[in-house]
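I am still getting used to C-alpha cells and would like to learn alongside you. To get us started, please write out a protein record for me. Start from the sequence, derive the C-alpha cells from it, and show both lines together. Once you have written the record down, we can walk along the chain together:
***
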Amino acid sequence: MNEQYYPIKSSFVQIEKKNSWHGIQGMLFEPAEACEKSQIAIIVMHSDMDYLAFPVNNELAKRGYRVLGTAVSDRDNLMDEKMLDVQAASDYLRKIPGVRKVIALGHSGGATLMSAYQNAAENGAQVFQGPEKLIKCSDLGELSPTDGVMLLDSNYGNGAMTLLSLDPAVTSEDGGGNLDAEFDLFNPANGYDPKGSTYSEEFIRKYQKAQGARNNRLIDAALERLHTIESGKGKYSDDEPFIIPGAAQYAYNNKMFPQDIRLLSHTHKAWQLLHADGAITEQIVPCVRRPKNDRSFTDQFRMGSLKSTVRMFLNSSAVRTTEQFGYNEDSLSGIDWLSSYNCTPGNVTGISAPLLVMGMTGGYEFLAAEIVHENAKKSKDKTIAFVEGATHNFDTARECEAYPGQFGDTMKTMCDYIDKWLSQKGRFMD
C-alpha cells in the first residue's frame, strides 16, 4: 500500500458517563486536518491499565484515523462497570462530526474487556447471565455495538491468565511459604535449567493436573463465601477480601510455559505471517521467544499473590477447568471458556462484527490469537495474522533475532497491516 503519514494533534478529553460524577479520561489523537480515513474512530482501552498514551494511538492517528486512548474509570470495578466505560467512550466518538464508524481495539487484557463489551452489546447482557456463568453479569441496559473489533496479542483471558499463574506447589491457602517440592518448577531434578527448561512429559502432566485442581478448589471456595455473603452471614455485607498466594498475573508469575519454550510454541494451523520486508507467508507460525522467569515469587505477598475480593475474583479472574486441562506445543485444552465473561475465547463466540485478530511471535501469549480466531465462528468477516518478531507490546524482539535487523520495525509492520484492514473498501469505508 502507498504510505501516507499525516501531521497529528492530540487533546485531553474528559468523557461523561451515566450515573458517574467523574466519568473517564481520554486522549484523542487525530490528523490535524480531517481526511477520508478519519471517519473511522478507534477506542483503545485495557481492562486494568492506563492506555491514554499507548504507542499504537499515535501510530494509527498518523495513518489518518481518530484514536481515543482511555483508562477505565476504576481498575477495581467489576467487568460490568468497565463495559459501561467502553459505552461512554463509544458515545463520545459517535458525537464527533465526521465520524461514521467506531472500532474497538483491545490489547492483552483489553481484549477481554472489548470482546465482553461487543458480545453484550450485540446480544444483550443476558448472554452473560446463564447458569453456566460462575457469577452473572448485572443488567447493563442497552449497549451500542461497535462496528468492528481488533484484538492485538490478546492474552488467554484474564481468568485463564490467573489459572496459568497458579502455583500448584502451594500447600495452604493461608500463605505462600510452605511449598510442595514435587511441583517445584525451579528444581533441576524436575527439569529446570536457567538457560531454558525441558520438563518431562510426566512432570508436565502432573503439574498441569494439579494446577487445574487448585483452580477449581479456589473457585468453589469463592462461591461458598459468596453464598455466605448473600445470606447475610459474611464478614461484610457486600464483599470480602480474597487473597490467593502464588496467583498474581504479572508476566514474571506465569508458570511453566515461559520456562519450557517447547510449550505453546507454534500454531496448530497455517496462518499469515508478516515479515519485515513486506512479504506475507502462509505457514505454521512459530514463536521466537526466549526462556524467561528464573525464580518463584510465591513466597512474597506483594509480588506473588493475587489480592482480590470474592466478587472480583469470580467476575474478573476465574474460569473453570475440566479434567482435560493442559497444554502442549500447539494447543490449550480443558478450559470452560463459557463459564465466565473474563476470557476472550468465550466472549468472541457471540461476536458477528468484522474482527481482526493479531498475534506477536516474540511474546509468549501469541497462541491465544489462534484460539480466539477459531472460536469466533459467528463473525463472517474475520482475519488473523501474526507479526514476526514482535513482542507483546509490539516492539521488535531484538534479542531473538538471528542477525541484526531480521525482524525490522515490528510496530510499523503491524500498524501498516491494521491500516490496510481498516481501509479496505466495503468493510468500513465506501
Q: What stands out?
A: The chain has a mean pLDDT of 95. The longest strand covers residues 266-274. Residues 201 and 231 are 45 Å apart (CA to CA).
